[in-house]
Structure formats: C-alpha cells, structure tokens
C-alpha cells in the first residue's frame, strides 16, 4: 500500500467559486490572497489568464500552463520565491487541473504573480505561499475576499 499525501491544503474553499468558474470566459482576472500563521506569512497578488492571452504567446508551448514571477526583486528577494517555488508550482498545477475539471475541457493558464509580501522574521514558504496563492485565486471570483486582500496589502506593505 502506498500512502498518499494531501499536498494542497485549503482546497475545499474552492467549492464556493464553482458557479462563477463555470461562467468564466477566460478574461484576465486579478486576485490577492494572504496567509498568516504563527511563524509564516505570505501575501500574493496575481493575474490569471488563458495562455492565448499572453503577450508573447508565440514564444511559449501553448499546451502548458505557466507560473510567471514578475515581482520586483529589489522589493522581494528572489531567494524567498525560490524557497517556495515548488509549493507554488504544486498549487498552480492543482488549480489548473481543477479548473479544467469544472470547465469540462483542458485549459492552459498563466498565473502572473506581480506582488509578493513577507515579514522579515517569517517564512514565505512552508504552506503560507501556497495558501496565499489559493486565496488569491478564490479572490479572482469573490469581490469581498479581494477587498480584504487589498486592505491587508495596504496595511502590511505600504508603498514607500
């Protein structure tokens, strides 16, 4: 017998966006999510769109989805992303497969991460980045959750 692991935590919260997801016509969506635990914190702001809408789609294999990191490395060190990259990839793959299941067709998406936040004493990965990513996806379809994410970003990461 092979033990299986539940590697995507919080996925049950996706159930509240099923109807909106079915109606999604692949226009670009904006989302922002935050996860705060005892010693880990992550905030992610992103755009989600179909790979056909990527400006340089002719340079991509259109039969894949992509995680595109576009965060200013002066604002957020690349080491933090590299630490959580596998976690973010796992969540993005799960969400892409889940979206394809709900839509009833194979879809290929670009997850363009434009802002990430972390407190210096906390860890961006270890579950926080994935959960913030998941909440950002849900907020693409939930205006109230999106507003909460914006408030957390403005409070915890004010523009300098």
Q: What key attributes describe this structure?
A:
single chain; 160 residues; alpha+beta; four-stranded mixed sheet; 36% helix; globular
Write the layout of secondary structure elements.
Elements: H1 18-23, E1 29-36, E2 41-50, E3 66-69, H2 78-103, E4 109-117, H3 128-139, H4 143-156
Parallel strand pairs: 3-4
Antiparallel strand pairs: 1-2, 2-4
N- to C-terminal distance: 54 Å
Please tally the β strands and state the result.
4
How much of the polypeptide forms β-strand, as a percent range? 15-25%
Strand order of the largest sheet: 1-2-4-3
Low-confidence stretches: none
Total DSSP helices? 4
What would the average pLDDT be, to the nearest integer?
89
Give the radius of gyration: 15 Å
Q: Can you describe this structure?
A:
The chain starts with 17 loop residues before the first helix and ends with a helix. By secondary structure, it is an alpha+beta fold. The mean pLDDT is 89. Helix 2 crosses helix 3 and helix 3 packs across helix 4. It has a 4-stranded mixed β-sheet with strand order 1-2-4-3.
């Amino acid at each position: 017998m092979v033990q299986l692991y539940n590697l995507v935590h919080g996925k049950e919260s996706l159930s509240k966006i099923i109807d909106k997801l079915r109606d999604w016509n692949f226009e670009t969506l904006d989302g922002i999510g935050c996860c705060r635990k005892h010693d880990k914190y992550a905030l992610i702001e992103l755009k989600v769109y179909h790979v056909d809408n990527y400006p340089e789609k002719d340079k991509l294999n259109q039969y894949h989805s992509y995680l595109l990191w576009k965060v200013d490395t002066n604002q957020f060190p690349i080491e933090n992303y590299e630490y959580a990259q596998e976690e973010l990839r796992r969540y993005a793959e799960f969400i892409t497969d889940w979206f394809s299941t709900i839509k009833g067709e194979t879809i290929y998406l670009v997850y363009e991460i434009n802002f990430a936040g972390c407190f210096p004493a906390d860890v961006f990965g270890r579950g926080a980045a994935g959960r913030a990513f998941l909440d950002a996806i849900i907020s693409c379809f939930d205006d109230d959750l999106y507003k909460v994410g914006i408030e957390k970003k403005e409070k915890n990461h004010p523009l300098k």
